[in-house]
Every structure is written in structure tokens, then in C-alpha cells.
Amino acid sequence: MNRSYHAWRAAVRIARRDAWRFKGRSTLVLAMIALPILGVSAADLTLRSAELSTEQKMERLLGAADARLEDPRLGGVPMHQAPDGHNPTPVGNFDDKPWPEGSGDLKGAIPAGAKTLKDTSGGGKLRTEHGLLSTDIRELIATDPLAEGLMTLNSGRFPTKAGEIAATSHFLESSGLSIGSTLTARGLDSEFRIVGGYELPNKLKADEVNALPGTFLAPLDKALKADDLPGTGATSSYLVALGGDGFTWNMVKKTNAQGITVISRSVSLNPPPDSEVPLFQQEEWSNYQESNASKVAAIAVVGTVVGLAMLEICLLAGPAFAVGARRSSRQLGLVGANGGDRRHIRAIVLSGGLVIGAAAAVVGTALGLLLTFALRPVLEGYMGRRFGSFDIRPLELLGIGLLAVVTGLLAAIVPAITSSRQTVLAALTGRRGVRRSSRVLPVIGLSAVGLGVAITLYGATSTDSVVFVAGGSALAELGIVALTPALVGLFGKIGGRLPLSPRLALRDAVRNRGRTAPAVAAVLAAVAGTVAVATYAASADVQQRAAYQAQLPAGAITFQNMEAGGRDVPAIRSAVQKNYPVDVRADVDRIVVGRPSCETYSTEKGCGRYELVVPKANFCALHGDDSDKLSPAERHKLSEDWRCKESDHYSQQEVVVADEKLLSALAVNDPASVSALKSGKAVAFDHRNVEKGKIGIKLITDSAKADLLVEKGKEAPGKVESLPVHQAAKSAEPYGIKVVLPPSAAKAAGLATVPFGSYFSTDKLPSSTQEQKLNAELDQLGADSDVYVEKGYTSDNSIILLSLTIFAGLVTIGAAGIATGLAQTDAEPDLKTLAAVGAPPRVRKTLSGFQCGVVAAMGVILGSAAGILPAVGLRLAEERQELKWYEEALDQGYGYMNDVPNVPIVVPWATLAALLVVVPVGAALLAALVTRSRTAVSRRAEA
Questions:
Q1: How much is the pTM?
Q2: Which of 209, 512, 608, 754 has a beta carbon 3.0–4.6 Å from 701's, enabling a disulfide?
């Protein structure tokens, strides 16, 4: 034991000395191992720091209070909740009665003697330097001790009197305002002065202002409603402090009986067992948690990714250790000449991996810590919330560092074994000898490839788990890695047909497979991953392109606005026509039931809605009360019935009031429909609504009452207006609109209408400059309207493929460069001999370039072939899953909503071409450029 310790100690000292002597090579290997460690340690530290403890969560949610009481708006009926305050569920069965709605007695649920602080939130549009900005408006006495921890004051102070507000830092940045500026809200004449800036630790990107209670939301809400605009939607909760044991679980249940939910600090810190939570005891309750199977699958996928990443690093670093072993061959020979055996030689080379792995662990972890600390504000800004603390987990970082040590040792194993097999005489004289390739390794590799392909195809076609696909693909790739030496030998058969420099390069690569194979395998692994992701991304892109549903004809534009009865619609129409290249403009109105400001599906008092009547003969049986009695075969058949077919498009309004220009804007080429609209006759695009040349529009004046009757299985009451209609051609595509009603027909039927929006056709798509001008004008108007431009399917796939190609290219050039450096070390005597016999200097450059290009080309070819398998497996698995879902939808009667799945498999030929041609050529040229053309001639050692 003592002898082994001293032997390893000496080996480590020798390895440390060699690492320091050859700083360039050591730095290269250290960087390759340390970079992944840096990334993983930084990610671990970031995730752990961003992961809040329960105490920290409660501080940001409750401040210094014991609990927060909220109204779930279930009408004050008794209810149950989860211990965390979520999932409020009324007690009882509501299958045969309306779901409870309305406000509860929030203030009455506060325990006697408790300290309270009211927290009210709403929303409005505030005028900024750039126009109007939708902003959260909060009313809270931020200086109250109970509010400590809810907000962090960055500058200035919190408001202390009416007319003062504080604003979040993000709001100040977005609005162009600063402390001391004044602002107003749309609809309210009062001015507010900004006196401070703060942030919400959990919502750094929130646009919010804070005022004293009663000074902002109530006046704004009153002014908005007086102007027939939507109110602020203000809701209130109460922070409650009790002292002692805080708000206990029994108190929470008592408060739930009054229809109020509670978020309690003490309950969150010490949650009750599930047996004491009434919600969890309900028969219909289901606690959706991640299953053990999915956890095992996730661990398997992560393990596979980590294993392949370690393999890639080993394949890249292995040749570099081989370079060190080859350059130290005389030193290793001296160890053998002085009594050292093969164990000592292996220990010295392995110690090189141990030393550099340990150094990479220290450097990578330290840089990960420093980088995370330095970039903490950036990371917090990106995530949108502050870290709970700078949480360092020593055991986790130690485990990550051990990965570096293990990776270094694994990378040095093959060079250690190879060096230990060299005779002392060969090591001292610099002769390399010749070893036959292993005959067992190709058999193992071929078996692994076959088994991996079989597992992948089995997982893709017979199971619902991607673990089989991932595992089989990884096994097949490992098999190809094992086959690499034999495949490199096969490439050598084409060398006789090549010119001098590429022939020498290929012969050298084949004769020295010990250094060529790892580099080729490293390129193979990187390219295989790139090709797999690129193939999957290209296939998914083609599928998404085919499934894309245009909302309008190509280049068409639309907007809709229901705010305040369409008050801003005329101004928006003018702004769009002014700034965009409009060809045809078609204005549309909507039917309104009740006040002009009522939105289509509003449940406010005094507001109703309209419905298109579907005649009984055209009613789809899948939507009837007896649909659950239908057999799967009957549902399959009904899914093909024209009465059950649904449009792939959606429109906010099924009925619009417009003239024939709308058909032109929608590219509907139907002269009969145009003539009908000109003559004052409605046009119907959905044949299910037409009966005997007429359509019915039901006007429902009381939406709330109608909803109650519908829930009881009765028909909603309302007056039906019957209108003559022209049935459009089946080929016409109205993009979700079912009926176009000319203004004269709407007026004759007594239907009230208000401006709703417009459709525009264009000669060409608007430019970025035109879009910015329109957005600026709309901001000044303060109109709440999104202008939609149909640009067709846009794909980000090209950026993904370009990034993957660059990544694979960099790894390929790196691996090929390492192999080329090793080749030059081995071939230095041959190069000097070529120079001595009169070979021109360019031969050295071209040979170096071709050596690098040969390695890159072999790796890219093999990697491209290996990368197709996992992509094909995943696509086949997706196709099987989507077909399964489609069959289930047919059985349940929802087949009419979906088309038969189409999951194509597309090979990204452009990416493959770049990998197969550009990357090897680029690697060869780069190697040729950085290689010196001349070297000093020296006498070769005699045997």
C-alpha cells in the first residue's frame, strides 16, 4: 500500500511538471474540460440562488404580515382550498345548479383584533413620453410595517399624500419619465407627481405605480365609466397580522367557510397532512404531480446527455494526451530503463489526466462562481426576479468538479495503455513500431450499432417513451465510435487515386489510427448531434408550415376594437390607411345588444348578445344532449358529416356589417355574393345557418339569465330576426366570418350597430419603417388595438440551422486541429526528410492542410450518417403519438376538429452540404495557413 502511494505520488509530480512545461497543450485540454464545468456550475448556482425558500416566498407575498385574505369571487359560499391558498373550490355539487359567482364579505372575514393593511390593485393607461402605457395601479401604504418586504425602494420615497405616486424602475425606463415628473391617466384630468422609484422583487419587469388608498383607482374608475370606457377592474386583499402562532390551519378553514381564501405564513411553513385538508379528500380531486416514470425518464435523458458530453470531451482531449505521451516517450522510456514497469508508465500518463482534470475542476468551478456573481444583476433582469440569496451548495459543486476529474482520467486511459505497451528501446530511440488493429472492437461496434438501431425503431413504433429512442440512438452512436478505427482503414483504400499531399495525409491517418480515430470520433459525435437536431428542426418546420392557418389572405391587414363602442375605430382606420400601402379598405361594424359600449360577450348589467340560429335539420348530433350515447363508429361517421365540420379560422364576430368591399379585401372571388351585397341582401358562408334562403339572428337582452337557462339544458330566450340571405360558394374562404350583413339590411331589421374595425388589402407588405410610424401614431392615440398583418408562415429555422452548423464547424475544426498537431509531431522526421531531399516548402503546408481536412471529412461523413437515426426515431414516435391522439379524438367525437396527422421527415440538405463541403475545406485551409512552411533540417536518429 505504501509503495503504491509513493509510486502514484511520484507519477503525479512528474505529470504536474510536464503540464507546467507544456503550457500550451495543458491550457488547451484544461479549457476543453473546464468550459463545460464552468457552464454547469454557473447554471447550478443560478438555479439554486433563484430558487426561493418558503420563508422568502412568504416575505415577498405577505411582507411582515401573518396572512393575506383574498376574495375568490365565489359569492361568499363555503369553499375549500389547498394549504398554499390556491385551488378555491366551492363546497357541494354544482352539476345541476349555476356555479357560484359574486363578491364575498372580505372585510367581515378578518379575525377580531387583527392588524390589517388593505392592498388594492387595478389597471389603466398612463400618459408617458411616448404615448399611453398599460400599467398596473396599486394602492398600498408602502411605509406601513406590514408592507415591509413587498417593495424595495430604489430611489426617492414612497407617497405620503394625495397626488403623489411611486413607480417601478421598469415603468420609469419604459415611460421615459423620472422622479419629479408628472403624469396623468387616460380619462382622468388629475395630475400625479412621481416621488420615488421601487421594484417588486418577484416582478422586476412589472410596469406599476403605487398611490395612497382612495387617491387614484376610485377617481379613475368613476371617470372611465362616466366616459363609457371599461373601468380599472380593481380588486382588494387584506394583509393581516395576529401575533402568536399566526394564522393557523383551523383559522384558515373557518375563513374558508365564509367564502374567503387565505395565504398563511404559518401554514405554508408547516403544512398540514393531506388527511386534514378537506379539498384533498374530495372524490373529484386529483393532485397532478410528476409521476415516478416521468422522473426516471427525465433522469435517463439527462444521464444520456451528460454521458455523451463527457464522451465528446474525452474524444477531444484524448489525442492531446497522446501528444504529450508521444513527446514524453523518451522520459517514459527512461522510467522503464530504470526499473519502472507498465503500471508506472500508465500511472504517469493517467496522472496527467488527473492533474489537468483537477485543475479544470478548480478553474471551471471558480470561474462559474465569479461569473455568476458578476452577472447576477443581468441574470436577475433576464429571469425577472431577484435571487433569494447567493446559494452555494458545496456538495453539488464538488460533484460537478468530480466530473472534470473523471473526464480527465477517461481521456487519458487510451494514451496510457498505448504508452505502456511500447518497448523501452522503441521509446528511447523514438521508433513507433506497428500494431495490428483490434479485431474484437469492430465486432462490438457493429453489434452495438445493430442493437441501437433496433431499440430506436422499437421505441419509435411500439412504445410511448422517448427513452428508448434516446438510448438506442446513443448506443448506435457509441457503436459507430467503436467502429471508427476500422472505418478509417476503409477510407485508406481510396488513397491510391489521390495526388501526393492528400495521399500522404490519408496514408498517415490510416497508419496512425490510434490518434486519428479519437479525433474522427469527436467530429462524428458533434456532427451527429448537429445533424440530428437539424433534421428534427427541418422536419418540424415543414410540418408547422403545412399546418399553418393564415388568418387573412397574404398581405391583408385587419384590426378590431370594441372599446367604448368603437369610439377610436375611425381614427385607427385613418392611421392605418395613412401609414400602410393600402389598396382596398373595407370598414366593418358589429351588432350590439344593449348599450353601445357593451362588448359582444359582456355579462355587465344592461348588456346582451346575439347568436346565429342553427336550424334543427342542420344541427350536428355530436353536439346534442345524447352525444354520449353514440358509439365510436357513429362518432367516426359523424365527424365526416358536413353539419359537424368546423372552420379552421376564427373571428371575434360571426356576423359583421359591411359592404361588398369586404369580399375584395378577403380575396373572395364570387360575383354572385358581390351582387347580393350590392342589392342589400346578406351573404352566408356557413351553410348550416341557412334554411329556405334565410338566416336567423337571435337577440338576447339578458346574458346572465340566458346563461342560467343554458346551464339547465334549456334554450336561451330572445327575439329572432329572420333575414333573406345569399349562400356563398363553398370554395369561398371568409376567414372565420359566417355572415356578412349589408348596412341597409341591418338597418331594415332594426339591428343596432357600432364601428368594429376594418380589413385592408395591400399591394405589398408594409416595411419596418411604416410599422414603426403606425405604432407611434397609435401610441399617441392611446387606442387599444392590435393591427394584424398577414405575413404568412415565418420560420426561425434558418437561424437554428446556421447556429448548429457553426457549432459543428467549430468542434470539427478543433478536433481536426488537435489531430493535425499530433500528426505533425509524429511526422516531423518525415517532413524533415522531405525538406532534405528538396521538397518545396508548400508541401509542408499542403500536407498539414490535407491531414486536417481528411480527419474533418471522415468525421463529418460518419457523423452525418449517424445523426439521421435519432431524428427519424423521434419523428416516427411523434407520428405514432399523434395518430393515437387523432383516433382517440374520433372515438370521443372531436375528430371534426383535426385533420389526419402529417409528420414528415425532411433531410436538411443545405446544412449537410455545408458540413460535408465547407467545414472540411475550411479546416484544411485554416490548418495550412497556421502551419510554418520551413523548419530546421536535423539528422535522424540511428536505429
A1: 0.70
A2: 608
